[in-house]
Design goal:
The structure holds 2 protein chains of 2 kinds.
Chain A lengths: L10 H11 L8 H13 L5 H4 L8 E5 L8 E7 L2 E7 L17 H4 L8 H4 L2 H4 L8 E4 L7 E5 L1 H10 L18 H4 L5 H15 L3 H14 L22 E5 L6 H12 L4 E2 L2 H4 L1 H10 L2 E3 L2 E3 L7 E2 L6 E5 L10 H13 L4 E5 L12 E3 L6 H14 L5 H5 L3 H6 L5 E2 L4 E4 L5 E4 L11 E4 L5 E4 L2 E5 L2 E5 L15 E5 L5 E6 H9 L4 H8 L3 H11 L6 E5 L1 H4 L4 H15 L8 E2 L20 H4 L44 H10 L7 E5 L3 H4 L3 H8 L7 E6 L11 E4 L8 E2 L10 E5 L9 E4 L2 E4 L2 H12 L5 E6 L2 E3 L2 H13 L11 H9 L11 H8 L3 H8 L3 E3 L6 E2 L2 E2 L6 E2 L4 H4 L28 H4 L4 E6 L13 H6 L4 E5 H7 L6 E6 L6 E3 L5 E3 L1 E7 L6 E5 L12 E3 ...
Parallel strand pairs in A: 5-45, 6-7, 6-25, 11-12, 11-23, 12-13, 14-37, 25-26, 26-27, 38-44, 39-43
Antiparallel strand pairs in A: 1-2, 2-3, 4-5, 4-27, 8-9, 10-24, 15-16, 15-22, 17-18, 19-20, 21-22, 28-29, 29-34, 30-31, 32-33, 35-36, 38-47, 39-44, 40-43, 40-47, 41-42, 45-46
Helix pairs in contact in A: 7-27, 9-10, 11-27, 13-22, 15-18, 15-19, 15-20, 15-22, 19-20, 24-26, 28-31
Chain B lengths: L5 H14 L7 E6 L8 H9 L11 E8 L2 E8 L9 H5 L9 E3 L9 E3 L10 H4 L6 E2 L14 H4 L21 E2 L5 H4 L6 H5 L5 E5 L6 H8 L15 E4 L4 H5 L2
Parallel strand pairs in B: 1-9
Antiparallel strand pairs in B: 1-8, 2-3, 4-5, 6-7
Classes of the chains: A alpha/beta, B alpha+beta.
């Protein structure tokens, strides 16, 4: 038996022992492998240190988790090619604070396992999911019937490209002709794209009554090419190429560039992300706040948002932000906050209907009524303005020079004068030439194009003053509260108010007590919070997330809270509101010219896609050829001048054929049927063969949405592939985490462009590019002797760009590090890792590429993160308190203008009706929440997580449970007015009732009921499927719990979509009223 | 702002302790519940590190709520093995003596840890109810992949408990034995902190030689009022808690 005290054996003993152990040769099964090891252990052959193989640099690879979108750095421990343990990456500031510097050697770094949440710890279970799809699956039955056959990859490419009677074996589809991708590649000439695109765009600017004539002009000019258009009578729909619709769920940089290379070459403008299911209105409200004044209008708004610099803040008001269960993310934010909270250096107030883990650590919990958040913000605004607790000096700054003079990095437009119409409605900013103060002038932009510059106006010492907001030399400050009448050149009166005056009038429309009543609290609370918020200089923040965003009034909720940050001018300050910063991947960095690969130059030459997208984003309804005048209201569906990536619009717009038909849909790592509210409407859209003739999905399992596909193209798990994760707003360090292959993939190996590679998302794009003969792909794709035939051709170049971004590049790897780099990848097959090949691609940048890959990314040092009292990675621009661009947009249903200044707006459907009828008989207010142990669609496959949390619960207050006569553990079904049966209709007669177990608690506002997302699956191994005629039994453990999204309201006008925020795009997650029925 | 993450500080404390003669060392763990955010990373990290089978948790995190809306509180309580100086499990175990199945180690690297020798454990289960903390569980030989098309390789690969390799296959040890938290002695041996400590996102966990006044754990213990679980059982735990709540009320006497 095992000898406890013996710690080593001699070589002779070893040989003797292994012969006696009688294992014979190692056989390629799990159990034989284990037997051999037992023999060695019993021989006492291994020392303690040798025994712990997980502490070896050569067995460690660094990458980036993707079990949620935080994307923490991970340190993956690999034995015999198997990922056996995952911990946090100490080089990555998401996991260690302060993190190890890049100059720290991997030999030292291996000793430090850094922080990581439970999902990250379970990451490898997703890669080793027995239900993974490793070959292309084609449906053998009806959509969603879960009858599949595995087919050769090349056959899939043929069929998808060529079309035809692809489903002749399916009863009912014998004669159904499917359009292939080649046929949709109708417009192929880049010059024609530009010409027609320009002329189609010109149609937008025409008045509705002039449009018909303009269309005839267009048709005459482009007579030869009319056949490529979707509809010649609507040239603004664009070419047939747009009928290829590509959408994605969780996709980051690198993969997004890869896809764009194909879709750009193909010429479709229908490439849409999922932003509005997450916190779209947060992004687009902040985008509206970041629009810059360029010439005579607002442009260049960034799709992003700010969060608190939590390691320095003294006070944070968190609104609907669930930091210790979700947000971005528990790992990085908690470690920066907990000690400071304990030491009394960080105080918090949490606005949330639930007493979250974050609320449990806060000094004050305010259980607001869902959807009424803006009322709280407006109440605070009123108190701050009336008590003059704002930063007057900051708010007075009208331009960059004024800000710089008082050491501010940002400035607002609060003191700018806004024109007010006869009804008192604020519109555009006053231009100096309108009152004869200063004439507009001609200027040239950085590309040499001429444009008209119009000066803006503020009031100083009672007199109007003209200014340029981007002027960095002549400082202009203005009075904060202006309400006056000026005269134009003809002597006509122009009423003007400063932005802050509009804000004051908005805020004083109600008393603080009235605001409090609206949001379910009291005036004293609002006042106390406002007082606390304004008592910490710039080290106070309002940090908001999905809570206020995912309502029909999300945009205004968010803007009204963000405006509070403007009132104290905390942007770019230590402890204030900060934004993310990254190292550039595509070689277009403006901070250096040393990046070796500019993808704008070497990448495939894309077309200039044009036309209205299928979700009608970045365009006003009034600019469309579908708009004839006032009689065109209400539009059939919403138009989105301020938002993009409107996830809930994609499939339902296709189902409505509005504004036009789609022919082929391809989805990547997306699950709209599961993640969206009223997801059953998304299922219905997918089942429509006529409206959606061909649907292909890229997925690693048969998921909640990909199960409805015609073809599933298997993908790599995040441990098997590349990507650049980017950063999040609360991270002050400049970073670029690199996701790289750390294990081999189980996927079938195929040949594309003559290269053997496992089937993946990238392989699919490459194969289609090969099939369609796109330039810029394949041999010499990037240039002479520069092939683009496999994923690493793309990604190694990007790693080189990352390594050489900024003034200082990363250090060259030492020989020791290069040796380690090679040794630690010894288990990867050549079709995943080929050192010679990678070195050739990287060229002279190779030693720097090794440095970055040896650390799982590039991370600036903690020391470089702050400059005095401000952040080094600043936002550094204007922030809009009053939004002119927003005020210039109209509601596509009512024709009314959006509000330029955020205000309280009640929850309403698309026609503007408050959901009174929908609420009758449904007394409970449904919201959702995240649990840190699960994400939505993907973590149910991970047994460590599902074993720990096998099911979720319907969580409600004691008083509501009493009314219902239920106690913890009882089963209830969730019903709503738009889902009175309380079921998921999964198609093909398959129905899944929304039944979950009750959890009674005191930690939620009475009247509100919630559940955590991630359970109630009907997919991903939860149910039986048939592949190649064989039954693959599901694991019932994956079907546990409830997913109540199907109870969320369907909009009564749209009929096939959930309720939406018409301005910001967010879906309504938290507005539905439900009832619970005991089962 | 601190100059080093406490994980780095404690790593150095550990290396310093390992360089010292062992007889003055006293391994201890301290959990500051004010910093625990109830994420269960320690639970899952430990499961992964030690290749625990389904439903076995060396370190569960208990969640409590108190009070009436809106004056409520929530407490999160990670519960590793207490490594008691007076362990009731050792008293209950029938396989006693020098080559026993479970004992409080007094010498060497593992001094202070209540050890289990899987080879000597007869699987009687007497230790399980003897522990006032429910820290010990019998390994029934299950796999996480049961009920799926195939058990995956990572599950069968070795854990490194007690400095040995334990691949998981069929009825091989430690199937059939009692198992519990062991302060990750296999990691201490190579100068690494226990997994529950390193993966903690709230940095609530402290570990080290509490006899070293320079160590972080000694300093935190000195600076705060300390509680232990079930003080009435007089087990003299090596795991200390800092909490604003009275743990006797939440967890029992």
């Amino acid at each position: 038996m095992a000898n406890k005290t013996k710690t080593t054996v001699t070589r002779r003993d070893f040989l003797k022992t292994s012969a006696l152990a009688g294992c014979g040769a190692i056989v390629a099964t799990h159990f034989d492998f284990a037997r051999d090891l037992i023999a060695r252990v019993e021989a006492g052959e291994l020392t303690q240190a040798e025994a712990y193989e997980l502490l070896k640099a050569e067995n460690t690879l660094y990458s980036v988790c993707l079990n949620c979108n935080t994307g923490c750095g991970i340190k993956v421990k690999i034995l015999d090619g198997v990922a056996v343990k995952i911990d946090g990456n100490p080089y990555n500031p998401f996991c260690l604070h302060p993190h190890l510097e890049m100059k720290e050697t991997p030999a030292n770094a291996v000793k430090v396992d850094a922080g990581l949440c439970p999902k990250g710890q379970a990451g490898h279970q997703g890669a080793y999911d027995p239900y993974r799809v490793t070959r292309v699956l084609k449906r053998a039955g009806k959509r969603g019937e879960n009858k599949w056959i595995a087919i050769p990859f090349n056959q899939a490419i043929e069929e998808i490209a060529g079309g035809g009677k692809l489903f002749a074996n399916v009863p009912g589809e014998e004669a159904r002709q499917v359009t292939g991708l080649k046929e949709l590649y109708a417009l192929t000439d880049s010059k024609a794209f530009e010409e027609m695109g320009k002329d189609a765009a010109a149609l937008r600017k025409k008045k509705p009554e002039e449009r018909q004539a303009a269309i005839e002009e267009f048709k005459a000019k482009h007579a030869a090419n009319l056949g490529v258009l979707i509809d010649p009578d609507h040239p603004d729909f664009g070419p047939k190429n747009n009928q290829f619709v590509y959408f994605w769920g969780r996709k980051k940089a690198g993969r997004s560039n890869f896809a764009a290379a194909f879709t750009g070459a193909f010429g479709t403008n229908n490439t849409h992300g999922h932003t509005t299911v997450c916190q779209g209105s947060l992004y687009f409200a902040c985008k509206a706040m970041s629009e810059q004044y360029e010439g005579n209008s607002f442009k260049g708004g960034q799709k992003f948002y700010w969060q608190a610099d939590q390691e320095n803040s003294e006070y944070i008001l968190f609104v609907g932000a669930n930091l210790f269960d979700g947000n971005y993310g528990p790992t990085n934010r908690a470690m920066r906050m907990t000690q400071r909270m304990v030491d009394g250096q960080l105080k918090m107030t949490v606005l949330d209907p639930r007493f979250t883990k974050l609320a449990a650590k806060a000094q004050r919990w305010v259980p607001v009524l869902p959807g009424t958040d803006a009322a709280f913000a407006l109440g605070m605004t009123r108190w701050i303005l009336e008590n003059k607790k704002y930063d007057a000096n900051f708010l007075a700054c009208c331009n960059k020079a004024a800000a710089t003079a008082i050491k501010e990095l940002t400035w607002s437009n609060g003191a700018w004068l806004v024109k007010v119409d006869k009804d008192g409605k604020p519109g555009k900013f006053l231009r100096a030439q309108e009152i004869g103060l200063k004439a507009a002038e001609k200027r040239t932009d950085k590309d040499g194009k001429e444009f008209d510059f119009e000066y803006l106006v503020a009031s100083k010492d009672g007199k109007p003053v003209a200014f340029d907001p981007n002027d960095d030399k002549e400082a202009v400050s203005g009075e904060l509260f202006v309400n006056t009448v000026l005269k134009d050149a003809e002597g006509k009166e122009i009423k003007v108010k400063s932005g802050l005056q509009v804000m004051l009038e908005t805020a004083t429309e109600k008393t603080i007590a009235e605001y409090a009543a609206l949001c379910g609290t009291d005036a004293a609370t609002i006042e106390a919070v406002a007082k606390e918020f304004t008592s910490h200089g710039k080290k106070a923040c309002v940090d908001v997330h999905r809570g206020p965003a995912q309502h029909t009034n999300g945009f205004y909720n968010i803007a009204s809270f963000m405006n509070l940050n403007l009132l104290i001018g905390n942007f770019d300050w230590k402890g204030g509101m900060i934004a993310a910063s990254t190292f550039n991947v595509d070689g277009t960095s403006t901070s250096t010219d040393k990046q070796p690969f500019n993808f704008k130059k070497i990448g495939p030459k894309g077309m200039k896609p044009f036309g209205t997208s299928i979700i009608r984003h970045d365009i006003k309804y009034e600019e469309s050829t579908l708009f004839k005048g006032k009689e065109s209201y209400p539009a059939k569906r919403n138009w989105w001048p301020l938002s993009s990536d409107v996830y809930e619009e994609i499939l339902p717009s296709i189902a409505d054929g509005y504004p036009y038909q789609a022919k082929i849909v391809f989805s990547y790592m997306g699950a709209p049927t599961y993640s969206l509210p009223a997801g059953h409407t998304q299922i219905k859209a997918l089942l429509d063969l006529e409206k959606l003739p061909l649907y292909i999905a890229s997925d690693i399992v048969i998921g909640p949405t990909s199960m409805y596909a015609d073809y599933i193209i298997p993908d790599l798990h995040f441990l098997e592939r590349w990507e650049f994760q980017g950063s999040h707003p609360n991270m002050p360090v400049r970073i670029q985490p690199v996701r790289q292959p750390v294990i081999a993939s189980p996927n079938e190996v195929v040949t594309v462009f003559g290269q053997e590679q496992p089937i993946s998302y990238e392989t699919f794009w490459l194969a289609l590019a090969e099939k369609l003969g796109f330039k810029g792909f394949g041999t010499n794709g990037f240039g002479e002797g520069q092939d683009f035939t496999r994923p690493d051709d793309f990604y190694i170049r990007m790693v080189a760009n990352i390594a050489l971004d900024r003034k200082e590049s990363v250090a060259d790897a030492t020989q020791e590090e290069i040796d380690l780099f090679l040794k630690s990848r010894r288990h990867l097959p050549k079709n995943v890792f080929d050192a010679e090949r990678w070195q050739k691609i990287a060229g002279s940048a190779w030693p720097k590429v090794v440095t970055v890959l040896n650390r799982g990314g590039r991370f600036d040092s903690q020391g470089a993160t702050y400059k005095g009292d401000q952040v080094a990675n600043k936002y550094g621009k204007q922030i809009n308190l009053y939004q002119e661009k927003t005020a210039g947009c109209k509601d596509a249903f009512t024709g009314k203008s959006y509000y330029g200044l955020a205000r309280y707006v009640p929850v309403a459907d698309t026609l503007g009706n408050e959901p009174v009828k929908l609420s009758e008989g449904f007394p409970l207010h449904l919201i959702t929440q995240r649990d840190v142990r699960h994400t939505k669609a993907r973590t149910i496959t991970m047994p460590y997580l599902t074993d720990l949390m096998p099911e979720n619960s319907i969580i409600l207050h004691t008083s509501d449970a009493k009314k219902l006569g239920v106690k913890t553990g009882d089963q209830v079904q969730v019903l709503s007015a738009t889902n009175p049966e309380g079921i998921w209709d999964l198609g093909n007669g398959n129905k899944k009732p929304m039944i979950g177990k009750v959890q009674v608690t005191e930690t939620i506002r009475p009247g509100v009921v919630t559940f955590t997302l991630g359970h109630g699956h009907w997919d991903s191994g939860a149910v039986d499927v048939t592949i190649d005629g064989k039954l693959v039994k599901g694991d019932k453990k994956r079907a546990g719990g409830v997913h109540a999204n199907a109870a969320m309201w369907v909009d009564p006008h749209l009929k096939n979509t959930c309720m939406i925020d018409k301005v910001g795009g967010s879906v309504s997650f938290y507005d539905t009223k439900v009832k619970l029925v005991k089962v | 702002m601190q100059n080093e993450d406490i994980l780095v500080v404690m790593q150095k404390d550990l290396e310093r302790a390992l360089a010292k003669p062992e007889k003055n060392r006293r391994w201890a763990m301290l959990i500051d519940l004010r910093k625990c955010v109830g994420c269960h990373a320690c639970t899952v990290g430990c499961v992964s590190e030690n290749k625990l089978p389904p439903k076995m948790y060396y370190r569960p995190v208990h969640e409590y709520e108190q009070g009436k809306y809106p004056k409520v509180s929530r407490t999160f309580l990670p519960r590793p093995c207490m490594q008691c100086d007076k362990p009731p499990c050792v008293a209950a175990c029938p396989v006693k003596g020098k080559d026993g199945a479970t004992w409080k180690e007094t010498a060497g690297l593992n001094a202070g840890v209540v050890m289990i020798n899987y080879a000597q454990c007869i699987g009687c289960g007497a230790c399980v109810p003897a522990c006032p903390y429910d820290a010990r569980t019998m390994d029934e030989g299950h796999f996480h992949g049961e009920g799926t098309p195939a058990i995956q390789k990572y599950e069968t690969m070795a854990s490194y408990e007690y400095g040995k390799q334990w691949p998981r296959s069929g009825k091989n040890l430690p199937v059939g034995t009692a198992r519990k938290c062991h302060f990750c002695v296999h990691r201490l041996a190579v100068g690494q902190l226990p997994t529950c400590i390193t993966t903690c996102i709230g940095r609530s966990g402290y570990f080290g030689d509490e006899n070293d006044p320079q160590s972080l754990i000694a300093q935190v213990k000195k600076a705060n009022k300390i509680q232990v679980l079930k003080p009435g059982k007089k087990t003299e735990p090596r795991v200390y808690y800092v909490a604003t709540e009275k743990l006797e009320v939440l967890y029992g006497k």
